[in-house]
Known about the structure:
Layout: H1 9-14, H2 19-24, H3 26-36, E1 51-56, H4 59-70, E2 79-81, E3 95-101, H5 107-111, H6 113-118, E4 122-128, H7 133-141, E5 145-148, H8 162-175, H9 183-197, H10 210-218, E6 222-228, H11 232-244, E7 251-255, H12 272-275, E8 276-282, H13 288-303, E9 307-312, H14 318-339, H15 348-357
Parallel strand pairs: 1-2, 1-3, 3-4, 4-5, 6-7, 6-8, 8-9
Helix pairs in contact: 3-8, 3-9, 4-8, 4-11, 10-14, 11-14
Amino acid sequence: MVLNLDDQKIYKKLDADMMYKSIEMLWAQMKQVLDEAHLVKVPREYSKVTQVVINGMGGSNIGIGLVRAGLNDRIKLPITITPGYQVPALVDKNTLYLLSSYSGNTEEPLSVYNEVKKRGAKILAICELGDNKLARLMMKDNIPGYMFKPEFNPSGQPRMGLGYSVLGAAMLLAKAGLFSIKESELKNVIAKLELSDQIFRPGEPVKINKAKQAAMKLYGRVPIITAAEFLAGNLNILRNQFNETSKNFATFLELPDLNHYALEGLINPKNNKDNLVFLFIDSSFYHARVQKRADLTKQIIKKNKIKYVEHQLSGKTKFEQALEMMQFGTWVSYYLAMLNNVNPAKIPWVDWLKKELE
Length: 358
């Protein structure tokens, strides 16, 4: 029996950690970053670097991918995201290296610090304010960066603090001279996110709530998220959220690349039509040929008797649409968790793995 998403009792039953509150306050997280940006100082010599490398895991990684793709038409230098224990050979004194850890205790980015420092890279860091390893390191070695107090993320889950990681990383990179963005533009985007959030909240009925509608169409299947170009970073975010928040396996395919290999795989196994569902995120900012490819891809999916869901973005800029997709996708993953009858905050297998690694 499929749960009724308009029944407010299910949210009280399943969401003891109040994940919905964190989602509602995405705009407030971003406003906090914007209000605190003047307190953050980045040395002038950081603007002379020739490349950027970023190390972050999970929820501390996905927001940076959105920044790289969503602001691709403004960012002046190549950005490489290399999560893990290894430092690429390309890292040198001309590299801006960002250590990203929401908790400040993430093992992988902390493990590379000494090697990155040895190579003379210009180091920045972003983490939660408090008694954690990265914050202590920032204080000890005078590492510039941003330490935030997550007052608008009551769930405590990094993937629900994307306002801090997305705008925090964007703010640091902007101060390092990688791109420019006007404060007025950010204020306008934040105001729109605050307004649009109202129509996605649990109290809004299914008949007008597009996030609930999408979740119901995805329920019981493996979502394949499909987007293109400046939304490439969002693909990783939403895949993360479906897996961790919804406890629902999901993957993604990116246009136009998927047209060169994935279409023939729709034929088998024969139960694809019962198990898969495509979620297309559409935008008028896509290249005209990509928009045509998306339409043709939908036709091929339909001919293979596989379902698909469409969502059209409406923001006035590419970055605004990237944030719009992030907000919408976060709500969809939350409602899919409700339909799956799971606590959206708990990540028991991730917790088990971390404990076994100790």
